[in-house]
């Protein structure tokens, strides 16, 4: 029964004509594809997927949905928690926040001692500038320094895949990228 419903939905999507004047809502069909299947697109017979409802799709349906659909990624950690949502989601999940905090060990602005209640998560490449929501593109900041970065009073740069802060010239004339070291002493 689920396979027949999915086939009917796919057929309805294929037959949507542009002659209709009423507004329509395009349904979303989520499919799960293993990275290994996408790695070898030269062999489309191996391209299979599973719908969000557990229906297995063959190579033809999978290929067609990839071709016609909006593609977004979700990368899962070892315990099944989402760690990278691409641009499909704006806000960091709790699992992502835990991973970012574990990596940064607290706020990254040198000398910042703000309490954990002031902690915010920042897109290193800003969401407005095309940055995705992932642990790679997130950093821990206090609320005040988060605003300072968006006001361009502080500069965030990436070095070796980690966000570093460049303080204003009057505080750091050499303009060296740095990270907070306070929490490393604990």
Give the ordered list of helices and strands: HEHEEHEEHEEEHEE
Strand content: 15-25%
The major β-sheet equals:
3 strands, antiparallel
Q: What integer is the average pLDDT?
A: 80
Radius of gyration, in angstroms, nearest whole number: 22 Å
Which consecutive residue ranges, at least 5 long each, have pLDDT under 50? none
**For the terminal residues, how far apart are their CA atoms?**
58 Å
Helicity, as a percent range: 25-40%
Shape verdict: elongated
How many helices? Answer: 5
Task: Quickly give the structural class.
Answer: alpha+beta
Kindly state the number of beta strands.
Answer: 10
Descriptive account of the structure:
The chain has helices at 2-14, 35-39, 59-68, 94-104, 143-150, and strands at 31-32, 49-51, 56-57, 75-76, 82-86, 119-123, 133-134, 138-142, 155-159, 162-166. With 186 residues, it is of the alpha+beta class. It has a three-stranded antiparallel sheet with strand order 1-2-3. The chain has a three-stranded antiparallel sheet with strand order 4-5-7. The relative contact order is 0.10.
List the helices and strands and how they pair.
Layout (H helix, E strand, L loop, with lengths): L1 H13 L16 E2 L2 H5 L9 E3 L4 E2 L1 H10 L6 E2 L5 E5 L7 H11 L14 E5 L9 E2 L3 E5 H8 L4 E5 L2 E5 L20
Antiparallel strand pairs: 1-2, 2-3, 4-5, 5-7, 6-8, 9-10
List keywords for this structure.
alpha+beta, 3-stranded antiparallel β-sheet, 19% strand, 186 residues
Question: How is this structure best summarized?
Answer:
Helix content is 25%, strand content 19%. The chain has helices spanning 2-14, 35-39, 59-68, 94-104, 143-150, and strands at 31-32, 49-51, 56-57, 75-76, 82-86, 119-123, 133-134, 138-142, 155-159, 162-166. The strands form 4 sheets. Strands 1-2-3 form a 3-stranded antiparallel sheet. A 3-stranded antiparallel sheet has the order 4-5-7. Strands 6-8 form a two-stranded antiparallel ribbon.
């Amino acid at each position: 029964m689920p396979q027949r419903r999915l086939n009917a939905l796919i057929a309805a999507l294929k037959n949507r004509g542009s002659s209709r004047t009423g507004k329509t809502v395009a349904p979303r069909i989520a499919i799960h594809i293993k990275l290994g299947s996408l790695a070898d697109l030269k062999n489309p017979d191996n391209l299979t997927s599973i719908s969000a409802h557990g229906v297995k799709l063959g190579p033809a349906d999978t290929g067609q949905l990839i071709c016609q659909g909006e593609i977004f990624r979700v990368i899962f950690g070892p315990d099944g928690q989402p760690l990278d949502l691409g641009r499909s989601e704006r806000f960091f999940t709790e699992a992502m926040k835990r991973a970012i905090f574990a990596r940064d060990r607290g706020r990254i602005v040198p000398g910042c001692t703000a309490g954990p209640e002031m902690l915010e998560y920042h897109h290193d490449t800003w969401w407005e500038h095309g940055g995705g929501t992932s642990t790679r593109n997130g950093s821990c900041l206090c609320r005040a320094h988060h605003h300072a970065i968006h006001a361009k009073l502080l500069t965030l740069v990436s070095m070796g895949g980690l966000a570093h802060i460049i303080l204003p010239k009057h505080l750091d004339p050499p303009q060296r990228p740095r990270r907070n070291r306070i929490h490393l002493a604990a």
